[in-house]
Amino acid sequence: MFPEFTLRYARLPERFHVRFAPVPVPEPRLVAFNRPLAEELGFDLGAFDERQAADWFAGNALPEGADPIAQAYAGHQFGNFVPRLGDGRAVLLGEVRDRNGGLRDIQLKGAGCTPFSRGADGRAPLGPVLREYLISEGMHCLGVPSTRALAAVTTGERVFRRVPEPGAVLTRVAASHLRVGTFQYFAARGDLEAVRTLADMAIERHYPELAEIDATRRYLALVEAVQARQAALVAKWMGLGFIHGVMNTDNCAIAGETLDYGPCAFMEAYDARTVFSSIDEGGRYAYRNQPWIAQWNLARFAETLIPLIDDDQERAVERATEVIKRYEGQYEAEWLAVMRAKLGLAAEEEGDRQLAEDLLEALHAGRADFTLSFRRLAELAGDPQAEAPLLELFERDDPIRTWLPRWRERLAREGIEMADIATRMRAVNPLYIPRNHKVEEALAAAVEKDDFAPFEALREVLAEPFTEQPGREEYTLPAPPTERVFRTFCGT
């Protein structure tokens, strides 16, 4: 059933990883399986056997050709450098080539206590496994580059975090698990050969167009390419009200995908200061800080490549610094492109940025729901009489009433039918997101009652986030006051 493994990372020298077989679990049970993704990866679904799949995705049996390893990496965690982290509970089975020709990692998360576990149990609770499944697949369907979930398996064990929970294993698929922290691990050890190996692998796997560039320019070009993807990625997060929660350098993927869905959440009432993570007491990774934390992480990445950028260290630092300084302009351009699309604007005018910022101010003043406000703007673009459903989202509506005529005047200059503008706005402003209370409702049912129906229902809704689904209006609404989620927790 499994496609053929290539084992590119496992064939690197031993200092890049440790070989580690997943620790068997007593009662593996497949509770979620992503058939569309499996087909995309080249699985033989005609030979699908649920019992065999449960054994594979729990780590009780190894698919033919797999060579499981735990990868080494370091990372800045909340600004503090930890020189040795690594996969404490994750095992990379290997890479497969998908139907489009791209390499994809297949990793088991929660597969046992590896040599990088640092005293932890190496397991994963069911709640965080299902959270990552729902939100990573939701992000994918929203058009955000992301790692993805292939399967979730319960283990028949109890895992102890804040309270005892059923254990589980997540099968995660990624373009790769190369992180800024992977480069930091070897740079901190002065292992320039390893850093070069990683850089060449990143170029070959994610940025093949750079292979033709002269070696004196190639590694600086890699910084530029990674930076461009990160700027675009974070702009997409900001356009959806998504808050990652743990933007440590070990969670910053070189491929430009969203990596690690621990204490993440989607903002409802707009407030740029919003923090959900229980461990982010200082607000380092608040919504408004995400673009600049990404730049900080990129600076750490550039530091690891300094010896490869130029033999003259001072000149290398200058060249890298020039690139990192350009991030602000790159991000601003990406963010403005996202906001123009959300507002129905295709042409570019000088006042568009102010128009977008003033809308956000109006949302903040009115404590209006971020996602529904943009979706109802789309409805208003197509129907001038549809103002009431938008205004009812605002506790205070005078700022949005002042803003709306400016927006209408700007749309008129687009020179196309308003119905067409409404259509393109609906295509980028989702009606359904993984709302925090609906996610928690699904997790609670699965964890406390072994009831996966709410999980399956939410997964089905999130697969079509831009399309109205009659009868599922409850999934569009913000949480009632008694169900609001203010804190989220990491599953480690």
The unreliable regions are none
Based on CA atoms alone, the radius of gyration comes out at 23 Å
Strand content: 5-15%
Give a count of the beta strands, DSSP E runs of length 2 or more: 12
Summing up helix and strand content along with how strands pair, one would put the structural category as: alpha+beta
Q: Please give the count of helices.
A: 17
* Helix content percent band: 40-55%
Distance between the termini: 31 Å
**Largest sheet at a glance?**
6 strands, antiparallel
Question: Would you give an account of this structure?
Answer:
The protein is an alpha+beta fold and about 500 residues long. The chain folds into four domains: about 15-175, no CATH class; about 180-335, no CATH class; about 345-425, no CATH class; about 435-485, no CATH class. Helices cover about 45% and strands about 15% of the residues. The protein has helices at about 35-40, 50-60, 125-140, 180-185, 190-205, 215-240, 290-305, 305-310, 315-325, 325-340, 350-365, 370-380, 385-390, 400-410, 420-425, 435-450, 455-460, and strands at about 15-20, 30-35, 70, 75, 80, 90-95, 105-110, 125, 150-160, 165-175, 240-245, 265. A hairpin with a 3-residue loop joins strand 9 (about 150-160) and strand 10 (about 165-175). Helix 4 (about 180-185) packs parallel to helix 7 (about 290-305) and helix 16 packs antiparallel against helix 17. The radius of gyration is 23 Å and the shape is globular. The two termini are about 30 Å apart.
